[in-house]
Write a structure and sequence with these properties.
With about 300 residues, this protein is an alpha+beta fold. The chain has helices spanning about 10-40, 80-90, 130-145, 160-175, 190-200, 235-250, 255-265, 270-290, 290-305, and strands spanning about 45, 55-60, 65-75, 95-100, 105-110, 205-210, 215-220, 225, 230-235. It contains nine helices and nine strands. A hairpin with a 5-residue loop joins β7 and β8 (about 225).
Length: about 300
């Protein structure tokens, strides 16, 4: 298996976020890929996939000739339990996990073909607003299916808890000397702290997903659409919709109470808890953006979710 060039976005983000540890991971990638190729009897079937931030992902073929994907991750809190979730999903609404390497966190996955992303799919006979509602319905249906009770799996990583995110926000936003208190989201941080308190005692717990968006759903043959790249957390149902609602509100075309109602109904989640999670994600985004246009767009998203 010839080692392909690491996509520029992966190299940039791993180095920016993880420094020398990221460089060590990049330096070890060729050896890791070569070892897994021998372990799982794989051969390269094309160049590495572009995009992404924490993974080297390349199409391969198994010894039988079956198409698959080799995914080598830079492990962190968000993605360490991805193989655990995929194992428990067992292909129900998400790509199948064929093999898992505990040493590195690498996975051999089902290849979704043709693999077109839902966010860029045009539906024949639908104008843009109608197509957007259809995409939202597909996404909510899949994420609703994937939320399920968690079972511990021997040999697989455990799940981080969504309440740990609330603890981190409390610590950062409650610190009057923090960078967030000096930035564009400063006026919203007391609201964020109040939302953290409201969400501290979830009514249910299961396998939630931190990274719900339309780019993580691709077309396939086994099912019309499959979820890829889950970021699983132990969380309530409304947690899944937090990022999804934030992203949909931020990018349009739908907005406000109508959008909130559609996502809450589609996920089977409490609308107020869903709105609270979305607001937290939107405020977190506001604390990080730079530039007049980006700040204005982030503030508009927060305001729209407040008024939904």
């Amino acid at each position: 298996m010839r080692f392909g060039v690491v996509p520029s976005s992966v190299r940039r983000d791993v180095l920016a976020w993880h420094g020398s540890a990221g460089q060590a991971w990049l330096d070890g990638l060729p050896k890791t890929v070569w070892r897994l190729q021998r372990l799982w009897s794989l051969r390269t079937d094309g160049p590495p996939y572009g995009g992404g931030s924490h993974s080297y992902v390349v199409p391969v073929r198994r010894e039988t000739g079956e198409q698959a994907v080799l995914k080598v991750i830079y492990r962190d809190v968000e993605n360490a339990a991805e193989p655990t979730a995929l194992h428990q999903y067992a292909g129900d609404g998400a790509v199948r996990l064929y093999e898992y390497d505990p040493e590195t966190g690498a996975m051999l996955l089902e290849r979704a073909v043709p693999g077109n992303r839902l966010k860029s799919t045009r539906f024949f006979g639908h104008r843009t607003p109608e197509a957007a509602w259809r995409r939202i319905g597909i996404a909510c249906g899949l994420y609703r299916r994937l939320w399920r009770p968690m079972d511990a799996v021997e040999g697989f990583p455990g799940f981080p808890a969504a309440t740990e995110m609330l603890d981190q926000w409390r610590s950062e936003y409650g610190d009057q000397g923090s960078a967030a208190r000096q930035g564009p989201g400063a006026a919203r941080l007391d609201l964020a702290l109040d939302l953290c308190e409201r969400l501290a005692d979830p009514p249910e717990l299961g396998i939630g997903n931190r990274d719900t968006h339309l780019g993580n759903i691709v077309s396939a043959e086994r099912e019309p659409w499959l979820v890829i790249d889950p970021k699983p957390y132990l969380a309530e149902r409304a947690f899944d919709g937090g990022y999804l609602l934030f992203m949909l509100q931020h990018h349009g075309p739908h907005s406000g109470a109508e959008l909130l109602g559609a996502v809450a109904e589609g996920l089977g989640a409490d609308a107020e808890r869903l709105r609270a999670w979305a607001l937290l994600r939107a405020i977190d985004h506001l604390t990080e953006v730079e530039g007049e246009r980006e700040v204005a767009a982030a503030e508009a998203t927060v305001a729209a979710l407040e008024g939904a």
